[in-house]
Design a protein that fits this description.
4 helices; Arc Repressor Mutant, subunit A; alpha+beta; single chain
Length: about 140
Amino acid sequence: MPATELDRVERRLLIHLLEHHGQQVRFEASPWVTEFGIVRRFSDVSADALRRALRSLEMGRLIYRRTQYVVGYSEPKQVYSLTPSGHRAAVEVHEVPTATGEPPTPLVAPPIPPAPDDPVAPSNAADASDPPPTNGSTEPTV
């Protein structure tokens, strides 16, 4: 099934599974790849529409379902994973610009840059020219 034939919910599910693809370790999967986690994540979509989309993706062999232990649960649960063709379709869907012309969102959040030094706020770093504390304490005061 080409990525262009997928509806909006199916595309969102593929991207969601792609984002959580690396979090599935050998013995425990992320709770976000269970049906319950997917329904919680897409609270703006009806549960029936999500189940139909999951079934459609599974029938199209873009995703598969297996029983696996999940972080936070004591018994195994059904989890969804991308097939190799589903992974390619998810990457293809993710790389297509949105309808507004914005670039696609990155799969991994970029690192947060350090805040620029505020010239008004005092610095917490001790300067070599600072005199030692006069109260005899060796701990810096903040």
